[in-house]
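Hi L.,

You mentioned the student needs an example of a multi-chain input paired with its predicted structure. This one should do, with 1103 residues in total across all chains.
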Amino acid sequence: MRKYLLTLVAVACLTSHAQIAQVNSTEPLLRGVENEMFYPVLNQDGTKLLFTSANCQGLKMYDFNNDVTIKISEAERAGLDASFSADGKEVYYITQVQKEGKNMRQAKKFDLASKQEVAISSEGRLVARPVAVKGGVITSVDGRVISPVSLKTAVRVQGTKLFITKNGVEKSYTPIEKSAGYLWASLSPDETKVMFFAAGRGIVITDLNGTIVAELGNYESPVWFGNNHVVAMNAKHNGYQNISSQILIMNVDGTQIQELTKPESMTMNPTASFDAGKIVYNTIDGRLYQMNISLK
Amino acid sequence: MKKILSSIFAILVAVSAMAVDPSEITIYINPGHGGYDSDDRVMTIYPFESGDTATFAESKSNLGKGFRLRELLWEKGYNVVMSRVANTTADDLGLETIGLLANASGAEIFLSIHSNATGVAARRNFPLMLYRGYDNEPVIEGSLEWATYANTHLLTNQATVWTSTNLNVRGDWSFQSSWGTQGYGVLRRLTIPGLLSEGSFHDYIPEAYRLLNSDFHWIEAWNFRKAINQYFGVTGVDYGAIAGRINDERILRGAEATYIMYDDDKLMPMHKVTIELYDETGTTKLEERTTDELYNGIYAFRKLTPGNYKLKFIKDTHYPVEMDVTVNADEISYVNAKMKKIRSTAPEVVSYSPVWQDGDDGVLCNSPIVLNFNWDMDTELTEAAFSIEPAIEGKIRWEDQNYRMIFTPEGTYNTSTKYTVRLNTTAAHPDGLTLKEPFEFSFFTNDRNYMSLTGQFPSDGDQVHYTKPTFELRFDRFPNGTGATGCITILDSKGNKVSLNGRTLKTSNNAIDEFGYIKVTASKDLTPGETYTMTISENLKDYDGITLQKPEVVNFTAVNAGEAKSDVTIDEMEDATIYAQNENGCANLTSTTVSANSDKLFGSKSVNFAYVFTGVEGGEALWTRTVEVEAQDATAFTSKDAIGVHINGDLTANEVYLELTSDIEVKYVKVCDMTFLGWRYVQIPLNSLGEGVSYKFTGVKLSQENNGMSRTGAFRLDNVNLIVDGALGVEKVEIADLSVYPNPASEYLIANADGMVDRIDLYSMGGAMVASAIGNVLNVSEVAEGTYIANIYTAKGCTVRKIVVKH
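Structure written out for the whole complex:
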């Protein structure tokens, strides 16, 4: 028993104090250029960054290479579910208008070369967050799935259903039964693991068969940092507003976790580019920061 | 403003004009909080104990409303998604997560259900609706309308008591302006019209009781559905409902209801009332409900065909009430009832106090007169029927829902007096039955109707050492310390208040000596030389509630008892071990202790002499010095000198003496009567000593004063000084710029001052003059080595220095 306890202590120390990454620098982005910047999204190589307003109205893209910000959309809700295509040449998002009391939505894409906006779905009340996949994008409109013909592997969520496409065949799973809903579904870069957030439970990792392989804790807004690490936010609230919020990095097996920012920093909504060793997040008052890290 | 209102109205009309199929609409419901945890808002209300989840918890109440709303919306065909259906910490989702889930659900509108709390004593009760954005400038189109409809319908609830029926529809950026545009977390990520509803105030305690009731949740849910129907232009339901609240007609809430109540909320809500619903003729019973026992009196018939009905409210302890009511489609008909208690027999006094009979001790002179009745009484008629002889003014109050009448005299009864209380037959209960026989009883008062002040410090004209001044009042009974500091007011000559440190307040009685005291220390030092006035309010009470008869006022002056003297110190009182109890000088003594004490005027310590005599008179204590008297150079005095003593008294009035011993006799020189607390400097001329005889300081003696407070105490001594020629009227002065050097001296001793030095006299510690010189230079080359006293005379007077001669 004593040996067992010692092992537990050792694991606890490892989990709570392990250093996963070295923070090399942290710097503000677009300070003095933009008034408020929320919900950032990096492309895979970390050269482009989407961001929006506090209300997710409109969508802008900052190009790190030429230090230029362009307007993608001015539409309502455009900044809520924005993402880059797998090759980084297009931006996906959803716009919304109210018609007779109903919220009508439509998935769209913006071609960064031609600067043209094109609808990729019909208008509907329930349009799923567009998820970039190899060969295109997958979304759904009022339950009708839109995906590229060549789709091999993909993941999306709807309510408390996790939909995993494996070898071109989509199946639904409910890995967590008691949940108010799933959010933030994504594939690992090597397309071997699925990550999603189950409300009331936290971040869940499954294999492509929907089998849970790890639960990382009740953190929000998880994004992949390579195939073996996840960056997420840890926010606490008092029922009315957040009273703390910080950015964490953790091993995908849940054995190690490291605070990248302090709880009182009110930092949230991380996005990450493993290729660039870059994490970008916003503060609660709409400032963007870039953190450069390297794994140990 | 008019333009804005017109625009809002236009939007309201436009939105309400649309009509959609509820089955195409999804409503997202977020019951706020969750899990009885740190971010829940729990109110422990009677009769629940802390930690009992049956008491009010906002998480539970919000969830109850959410369930009722979901049922009502489902009934109408709406789709409903809830952020939680259980009440655990895990269900208490991240605020922005809730908003994102609402967006992802495809919902048309969002509702976060809460109740409000101000956290202050000024309780109130009204709905408050919050949407994201500034006032009248919602971020999401439709939010203002949704919030306005909700507020409007919630205010139709007549089963509650609103303190305001104004609309309170606010943008969260304006309402919580200090949060900037961060706003409420649950609204931040919404991209659909959203509302955080503070449906009512749960810290208005009667509302907290109502929020324990499922029917009350249902009423709020009904009104939310009305607002949702209005927002989407959906027709209402084809049935109606009856709901309301039942209170006793006149009995107030119980003694536990010390919280703020408005209007009918002051009346006791009725428990276990059966409400029977009949058809219009009252012959066919259709349904029945029973109120709970949670102090709310709420009931509801939730689904009734429009038409006329008769309600019967039944409880065996009350007269039944019947009321006609019309039910309209899609409306709640509110019927609030008040029930009158059945009082079937004549009232009578079932017990009373004070109970006294011949031979008993007298009762306290402030005893309240208590009459307990078998019924709750008509307070006005019963008070009119009450009398006491001899007459005395007093106040009457009622307790236990008017079952108990209490008369409290203003001031006190006369001492040793027989009083007779009468209640004549006009005393009645609310049903009109009166007392069958007059009720009468008598009691005899004791011989004490005021608390007496038997000792105090300071007394009028006293001097008080300015640092850490402690004030003590002694009484003939045990004083009640609660509120005592508020009864003692000290002002300086400019009217500035001297605050008292409540944490230093000590109260005690002394069962043996039959007195009690209040002792308290000022928060800050006084100003030496300033005069002060201390007023002791007549409201100061003993534990029986007996007060002082009148206020006491004393004036005193702050002094510095430790001002530097030009004297030679005989004993610095740094070493307590040189004092030992001398049995030969003790009488009627239980115990003494001598110890060093950090409460001092000079150096680092003083010597504390503590004692307990066996009774209140005849006590003597003597502590003998064991070192000084043996020393060859021990300071000696003659009848020309004086001794200065720094003493910290104990307010016992016991007498303190110094023991001075010569070769032929022992003399006790009185220092003072200890009628004071704190430090005081006392200078005693020694002209009572034998002329030409040399004495030494050999001990300290205490002699007990015959009074109730003298049995036990403790006093402290600090520097005891010699004032050479102090008994001759030579003024001892301190000259600031006087320098006497070298010290130790070998050949000459030189004194320099601002003015001319007339003479230097050098005395041995035994009092013998060993050298003298006119002028400021004294030859000490022939003086033996040792310690001496130098008297240096100038035009200002004589200054004393201790000098060491060393060759």
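You could point out the following to them. Confidence is low (pLDDT under 50) at residues 1-17 of chain A. The interface with chain B takes residues 36, 54-56, 76-77, 80, 96, 98, 100-103, 125-126, 128-129, 142, 157-159, 178, 180-181, 183, 197, 199-201, 218, 220, 235, 237-242, 268, 284-285 of chain A (CB under 8 Å).

Best wishes,
N.
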